[in-house]
Automatic annotation (TrEMBL):
<feature type="compositionally biased region" description="Acidic residues">
    <location>
        <begin position="302"/>
        <end position="313"/>
    </location>
</feature>
<dbReference type="InterPro" id="IPR024079">
    <property type="entry name" value="MetalloPept_cat_dom_sf"/>
</dbReference>
<feature type="coiled-coil region">
    <location>
        <begin position="352"/>
        <end position="379"/>
    </location>
</feature>
<keyword id="KW-0175">Coiled coil</keyword>
<dbReference type="Pfam" id="PF13583">
    <property type="entry name" value="Reprolysin_4"/>
</dbReference>
<feature type="signal peptide">
    <location>
        <begin position="1"/>
        <end position="35"/>
    </location>
</feature>
<feature type="region of interest" description="Disordered">
    <location>
        <begin position="288"/>
        <end position="313"/>
    </location>
</feature>
<protein>
    <recommendedName>
        <fullName>Peptidase M12B domain-containing protein</fullName>
    </recommendedName>
</protein>
<dbReference type="GO" id="GO:0008237">
    <property type="term" value="F:metallopeptidase activity"/>
</dbReference>
<keyword id="KW-0732">Signal</keyword>
């Protein structure tokens, strides 16, 4: 039997918390690289969240969800989170994140040995709500508090040590996390904690091995970057957080964002998530259909009429030939739409890469701007404190302060220009995404029309044969 620890996201420093519980076997699954996997999320929130956001709680939660979806998209992952339910719970905002996760989660030992949950009293409805709304993952959202001891989030590691096998029903109970909102905690923390739920650990600087696979963890380079699962400060004071998961196929400031999983110390969280996500999406039967998927249980295209029996062989033959001609036209339309879809997909990927590159550059500039601000303030303070110095010394301090302020102001202009560029690229990205999704929907409708018309052709041919033999 293995362990599935709980990992927490720190605001500054700390040791990873390990919690033990029983799990099972080891199999290998293949990632589905084509279909988008939707993971349904239920968010429980406390008095503090309600007090801060009031009627806008759902809007704020969806904003956090969208940040995670952006991380998946920038990692070239076909994974989307969907908030299917949010509900207030009567639970303390000040209890430690570790205790909150324990209260939120079933007692693993009791669950394995006795089949009982023993969840904390405040969360007694979690099982019923999870089934009612089809939630695969459950998050407890609380405002960050000083009593959280620099912990922004904590979550169980799903599928720990199983080589990507989440089939044991007990893994469903590891789909739990506790998130600290706002304060020092960025919205990206949710994607980090859900990364744990989906089988990822931090990085080789924090953990001895990956999660569900040995290579299922984050990655970073000294004084350069750390991916979403790693702690940037561990990689050096100049290291920057990049908002994607580790992968040797992604670029992070000119370096690969990971190491091939077949190599020593491999780091490929993207591939691991591709394996895990479809299994996690099956944790709970889907209840809420996507209101944006363009379907309502019926087809948007033309509904083929049933072929009526024809007694005249010539009429039956003509009906068959007409059906074949229509099928040929639908196939040609499908082919054209497939070409449009491929073109739109390429444009979407290019727009996404351009935005991601500009976003990372903008984040680096913000860090530089903050550093220049600190330097300018220090130089000003030094000058103000130098009233007892000689005139020459005061002049030197004044010149130094002016130089630092000029550098800061120049960087402000540079950051403003980058922000304008970033906004333009975001508009282009959203436009390309919309075009791709529309082309994808059109192609799927064309595929369905071809499939339906094939049946019409088959029925018409059978009617023709029946007329000949009648």
């Amino acid at each position: 039997m293995g362990n599935h620890p709980a990992h927490k996201q720190l605001t500054s420093c700390g040791n990873p918390l390990i919690k033990a519980a029983g799990i099972a076997a080891a199999f290998t699954f293949s990632a589905n690289a084509f279909a988008t996997t939707t993971l349904d999320v239920m968010a429980l929130y406390t008095d503090g969240v309600e007090a801060q956001y009031g009627d806008s709680v759902e809007t704020r939660l969806n904003q956090i969800i969208s940040v995670s979806n952006k991380v998946y998209a920038d990692s070239n992952l076909d994974i989307e989170l969907r908030l299917v339910h949010q509900q207030h719970v009567d639970y303390s905002d000040s209890v430690s994140p570790e205790q909150a996760l324990t209260d939120l989660t079933c007692d693993f030992t009791a669950l394995q040995t006795q089949g009982v949950c023993n969840r904390g009293e405040a969360f007694s409805q979690v099982d019923d709500l999870r089934e009612q709304y089809g939630a695969d993952l459950v998050l407890l959202m609380r405002p960050y508090a000083n009593s959280h001891n620099n912990v922004c989030g904590i979550a169980w590691i799903g599928g720990y040590g199983t080589n990507g096998d989440f089939s044991n029903p007990l893994w469903r109970e590891t789909g739990m996390g506790v998130i600290g909102m706002d304060g020092p905690c960025g919205d990206w923390v949710t994607s980090h904690e859900l990364g744990h739920n989906m089988g990822l650990t931090h990085s080789s600087l924090q953990d001895s091995e990956g999660g569900t696979f040995p290579w299922a963890w984050g990655y970073g380079e000294s004084d350069n970057f750390a991916t979403i699962m790693g702690y940037a400060w561990l990689f050096g004071s100049n290291s920057q957080k990049v908002y994607n998961f580790s992968s040797p196929d992604l670029d992070c400031f000119g370096s690969a964002c990971g190491i091939d999983r077949n190599e020593a110390n491999g780091a490929d969280a993207v591939h691991a998530l591709g394996v895990a996500a479809p299994q996690i999406a099956a944790y709970t039967a889907t209840v809420i259909t996507d209101p944006n998927d363009g379907t309502d249980g019926s087809t948007d295209g033309e509904t083929p009429e049933e072929t009526q029996p024809l007694d005249d062989p010539d009429e039956a033959k003509q009906a068959w030939l007409d059906a074949k001609e229509k099928l040929a036209g639908l196939k040609a339309e499908r082919k054209a739409l497939k070409t449009e879809q491929n073109t739109a997909r390429t444009a979407y990927k290019q727009a996404r890469r351009a935005y991601n590159k500009a976003y990372n550059s903008y984040q680096r500039q913000l860090t530089q701007l903050n550093s220049l601000y600190q330097q300018a303030m220090q130089a000003i303070n030094d000058y103000n404190a130098g009233s007892n110095l000689t005139t020459a010394q005061q002049q030197n301090l004044y010149n130094a302060a002016i130089s630092k302020v000029d550098s800061y102001n120049a960087k402000v202009l540079e950051v403003s220009a980058s922000a304008e560029e970033l906004n333009a690229l975001l508009d282009a990205y959203n436009s390309a995404k919309d075009s791709y999704e529309q082309s994808q929907a059109a192609f799927e409708q064309a595929k369905a029309a071809v499939a339906a018309q094939k049946q019409v052709v088959a029925d018409a041919y059978q009617a023709y044969q029946d007329a000949l033999n009648g």
